Amino acid sequence: MKMALQRRHSGKDRKSPGAARSALRFNQGDHPFWWLCPVTIVLAVFYVYPVLEVLRTSFTDATLLDASYRYTLGSYRSILLDPALLQILEATFVFVAGSVIGQTTLGLLISLALQAGLKRRLFGVRAVRVTVLATWVVPGVASAITWQLLLSEADFGFFNAMLKFASLPPVPWLSDPWMAVWSATVANIWYGTALSVILLYAGLQTISPTLYEAAAVDGATAIQTFWHITLPGLRPTLLITVIIVSVLSLNTFEIVMPLTGGGPGRSTEVLALAAYNMVFYDFNLAQGSVLAVLMLLINLAVATTFWLLFRGSR
Amino acid sequence: MNYRSKRGITIYIALALIMLFFSLPLLWLLSLSIRTPAEILVRNLHVIPHSPTLQNFAQVLNNHQFLGYLWNGLKLAIMGAAGACVVAVPASYAFSRLQFRGKAQLLFLVLGFQMVSPLVMMVPLYRSMQAMGLTESHFGATLIYIAMYAPIATWTMKGSIDAVPRELDEAAMIDGCGRLQAFLRIILPVSLPGLASTFILTAMLGWSQFIVPFILLSQPDMLPISVGIFYFFGAYAGSAMQLVAAASVLSLLPIIVMVFFLQNFVVGGLTAGAVKE
Amino acid sequence: MKFNRTLLLLVIFSIGCLQPTGSAWAQDLVAPDRIGRSDAPKSFTFRVLTAHSNNNAQPKFAAGMAELYEKYARNHPDWRVRIQLMSLQIPQEHARLLEQARNGTAPDCTSMDSFAVPLFIHQGLLKPIEQYFTKEEVEELFAFVRPIVSDTEGHIYAWWWTTDLRLLFRNTAHVPDPPDTWQRTKEAALAAKRTTPGLDGLLFNGGRNETTMVDFLPNFWAQGGKLVDEKGTPVFGKEPNRAYLLNAIAYYQDLIKSGAAPARVASITDYSDLTASAIAGSTAMMINGDWVIGQMQAAMTPDAFAKWEISMLPGPTAEQRSTASGGWTFVSFSKDPEKVKACMDLVREVYMGPAVEVLQLLPTRQSEFDSMPMFRSEVYQRIKQYLTKSQARPGFPIYTAISNRLQIAIGSALSGSRTAENAVDEAMEQVAKVVPKP
Question: Does the bond joining A172 to the residue before it have cis omega, within 30 degrees of 0?
């Protein structure tokens, strides 16, 4: 035992004898099987069947109206050859990209400001945190309706009234196809930033304070500190945040639906909303499943891209 | 001192702008919640209505199911989050510390489950839960929450554990600990802030979850607020918005209370960082 | 921190304890989740729209319904009714009902939106209920009701107990006479705008929502247009219906181009948006539903309210007029005839009559208009006349797909991203893909 302790303190050559002993003793713990068991069981029992069903249904022509169905690639053909698909993907791209950039940036800003504010014991910091979290706690439908009221282009719509106050022309927030997507994106940024704040704030805490102290001693400016210490330290957290935000944004329609319903026309019909309409209005389960598969593939592609981009040196 | 206070002011301005953006819709919601039915459709820039009233709050609180909606929402969210964390923590430890073939692929497979839209899964999910006899119960709903949020929990926990230097593991194991003991005694306590934020994240996701409780539960006294809020709309959408707004505002209260109390514990008061140099 | 945590636990615990326990209601005949004594021998499940039950969020309506439920409970002491609630999320609720009906787990007795009924009839999931109603009661129903709730052999599967309709509301200070044609409506709107700058001429739903369809279809129907034929095959994209559709869309486009209606109608999806404009005095006319009459009266001063009048929706000519009606029905999924009868007794005694007065909704039978005091007023008698000319959305499951596609078409045409012809043709193409195979 004493020898082992001495070895630890010596640091460098810990590897050889001690490691060999460890390897022998901890063969059991080294095998990932038991560690992964709980997750695997839970997913296998409750999630695998529905997911496989969705995949399977996408290869049929099943609808909610008919109990019988046939296997066919027709549903894929319908979706992929649909001229509206391009518009849907465009809307989804703007929505997701905007949400990822907006939520991550705002989340980062808020986390930094919160951290700095807390350090200085500034008054009102708690209020900011509570407000941001509150946006997620309020039921989504209520938030969406409130946004609809604020964005209303009637005389009493808040934003247009403010513009009028400043002698600026009103903006067709929701009735112009192009503008509507951005309005929906901003509403989604408002709604989802809370999650980024939680993740990024926790990430900020993992950066050792001594690094900051060293930087301060070296006379680094705020921007230099941010660029050389904060950002690199946040890299793994940023990766996770960006992936999670993109997955959630791609799958979400809680805000878009009450806000615009997907209109005008289909200009704000993001993939998730298209899937919803397909299942609940057209009652077309198969095509809805195809859209779900499409969302899955896009999600995977986006996540993989971020993973490869962000991995860098770890 | 001058430089310091300039920074302080910049932070204040940043926080103020952020506050404005996030609080505007909430303030509007508050304004809607204190209006009488006569004024709910009066749309002008007055944030405070002519005759503000607290009667909407009284009505919502008198609704027999409202507090139940909040309680159920909290219960499902917390139980789902706790279960997801329990299940995810060992997995994230494995992904972080152990080397094995196909690790990255497995990691993406796990996340892949998260990526399938629960909306489209609604029908097969209902059928499979029915076959297992787990519909109409909080237990069944919680299990689905766990399955839904375990992937995200795994990913975020992995990130937290990654941030813990491996020297700690190795030091513990050299001392004679098994990997499991090293994990339980050293790594877990040190990554507690990360675990806490994972818990909060999954709890928040569970709070806003609509499809799963909607499809699995039909007794009103079992529903969470994410489903129950819809019962405050009148016979024609928009005809009782003041009650929906009041219910939404009230649904913030338990959370605000919790956040104020848990703030220090959760999002940062604990000495930050994992490693004591 | 220790103090904080204890306090926190206490707070959570006390919130949990504030749950009203079941025992508080055990003695009463009516509880939020039950009608009848809790120890009654027989029971059935009853899923009802929240706003149509004793769980209505507004206390006066809730109390009124509770009273009606109590009467039923006294008349049927052997029955215990387990109440479930349905929300206004119509697509989701009905998809869930569909799945549960297939599974055999649907409630015994449930509310159903009128335009979902044909879907369930076609799937053979409902039991006929005409034996529980007299012939007179059935004959008194407005004309648009029967085709929706019956099958080809005349069996009735749902009791449609409340309805609504769309009206042209006008502020007589700006538009003294009711315009009866599209042309006159446009002119009246423009005239009002000229005398009062900043005023909107005519407002209506044009966004992506079912409300848009219900406001729009009367323009199509007034010309004799049909969305589907008698067998349920979509024919709206074929002549002459295609021409009628294009006429109606052109009418909307003309309103916007001339400035009679503001461009923002392409984003309005909510009747309360329109009502709010009327209350704010920022519009001269609007297309809205009958239920806002009460809302406007509550929100406006008597003088301001007195200026507003209703009239039938305008048509291409003064004789071609129509309006659209929706509403709610009750159906039974139970295989036990006793339960079906108990369900229909509830419908007869509570909903087919007293409930419409308590909830201030429109009834579906002409006799109710004459017998109930609330509906004897001049306004309601006129509404009764309009209802005789009203139409309901087609009684075929394909309607929801048609509606979805036409909403897209109208929105695209109004915002200019597509021509009306292209939009309609595309809608027809897409709908053709989901027509159920014979």
Answer: no
pTM beyond 0.80, yes or no:
yes
Percent pLDDT > 90 in chain C is: 57
Neighbours of chain B (3+ CB pairs under 8 A): A, C
> Judging by beta carbons within 10 Å of its beta carbon (0-12, 13-18, 19+), is residue C37 exposed, middle or buried?
middle
> Which residues in chain A have Cβ-Cβ distances shorter than 8 Å to B122?
279
Q: How far apart are CA B217 and CA B135, in angstroms?
A: 7
pLDDT, tens digit, 9 for 90 and up, residues A171-217:
888 888 889 999 999 999 999 999 999 999 988 888 888 888 888 88
CATH architecture assignment, domain C26-157+327-360: 3-Layer(aba) Sandwich (3.40)
State mean pLDDT over C393-415: 88
Q: How far is residue A71 from each of residues A57, A58, A61, A79, measured CA to CA in Å?
A: 8, 9, 7, 16
Judged against a pLDDT cut of 50, whether residue B223 lies above it is answered with: yes
Interchain pair B220, C84: CB under 8 A: yes
What's residue C179's pLDDT?
Answer: 94
- The C-alpha atoms of residue C193 and residue C261 are separated, in whole angstroms, by 10
CB pairs under 8 A between B and C: 136
- Which chain B residues contact residue C95 at CB under 8 A? 122
Q: Which residues of C touch B123 (CB under 8 A)?
A: 99
d(CA A81, CA A48): 29
C15, C87, C277 member nearest B231 (Cβ)? C87
Residues of chain A with pLDDT under 70: 1-29, 122-123, 312-314
Q: How distant, in Å, are the alpha carbons of B69, C115, C292, C390, C427 from that of C430? A: 41, 21, 35, 28, 5
ipTM score of complex: 0.87
**CATH 3.40.50.150 for domain B64-232:** no
**A27 falls within a domain:** no
The correct answer on CATH 3.40.50.720 for the domain covering C166-325+394-434 is: no
- CB contact under 8 Å between C401 and A283, yes or no, is yes
